[in-house]
Amino acid sequence: MTARPPGARGRALHCPRCGALNGSDFDRCIRCGAQFSAPAPYAAQVRGILDGRSLLATKILGALTSFVFVGQLLAARAQGFGPLARWDRSNYLRFGALRIEPGEPFEPFRLLSAVFVHIDVLHFGMNMLSLGLLARAAEPAVGSARFAIAYVLTGLFGFAASAAWNLFVQPELMYTAGASGAVFGVLGLLLGWLLRRRDPRWKDLALQAAFYIVLFGFVVNAFSNEIRINNAAHLGGLVSGVLLGLSYAGPARGRYEGVVNLGALASVLACVAVLALAQRSPAWRAAEPRGRLSQLEAPPRGERPEGRPRPAPAIEGRRIGPVATTGPDGS
């Protein structure tokens, strides 16, 4: 038997050829007889770190989102806004919010960077709380690497669905951002996983998903002028999450671990890259106010400078009209 690294004993080892589970002290696969290479025990240690029980992916993604939000707070303070105020839209664009306007240049990297941007403290807190609650069940089930890939892809697909809706179905100007599309993706991931494994709990989870979509989507949009929920992003994230959950729970579970781990690393690096691109984009500099209340100089409500009607834009959970904040007297 080959020497094992400290802590490797007791962890299951997947055969790289057939995917069968083996003891960590086995030299050959009990199913196909393939001999494990010397680095295999160390690979088992890596798998132990990425098995999902430590919620490593959730911590990394949550930390990146928190880092962006702190940057937003500091930028808002530099503009003269408090942490509870409605910030200028240049703040959202600077950190990666998605701007959708038919006929205007489109920056595709914002489909991903928008996942890490939030419009205020409440928006940030609700999404991070929801992510933490769902990730406790989802990440240990699929593993940290697959969870990271799923979070990034569902957030991306959610905003892609939102962009498609606002460009082709209901063309209008829209600013949108937030992690809730990816959070719905995690909910869909759990739903697909349980469904594929014929776990009866998928029915309760499906009812919860339907309840949240109806309550926080269509009902809020129907009765509120101040809050506008991005239903397209939520549905896009949920559907793509279900598909990934169905895939993850299949018989190939345990295979291609190296490729999956590299994919997770690439996903996290892509998140960092798109956030850097947002900082370098000229879009937020063009929208930056000249002074603390300069956004009050916006065109009259419902009009654009060219005189064309201007639909009220939205930023995932909240509506942002042509005037981003109120004056000193609250008017």
Automatic annotation (TrEMBL):
Residues 300-309 have a biased composition (Basic and acidic residues). One of its GO terms (molecular function) is serine-type endopeptidase activity. GO terms for cellular component: membrane. It is found in: Membrane. Residues 288-331 are annotated as: Disordered. Residues 107-246 form the Peptidase S54 rhomboid domain. The chain crosses the membrane at residues 56-75, 111-135, 147-168, 174-193, 205-223, 229-246, 258-278. It comes from the Bacteria. Keywords: Hydrolase, Membrane, Transmembrane, Transmembrane helix. It is a multi-pass membrane protein. Pfam families: Rhomboid. Belongs to the peptidase S54 family. This is Peptidase S54 rhomboid domain-containing protein. It comes from Sorangium cellulosum (Polyangium cellulosum). The lineage of its organism: Bacteria, Pseudomonadati, Myxococcota, Polyangia, Polyangiales.
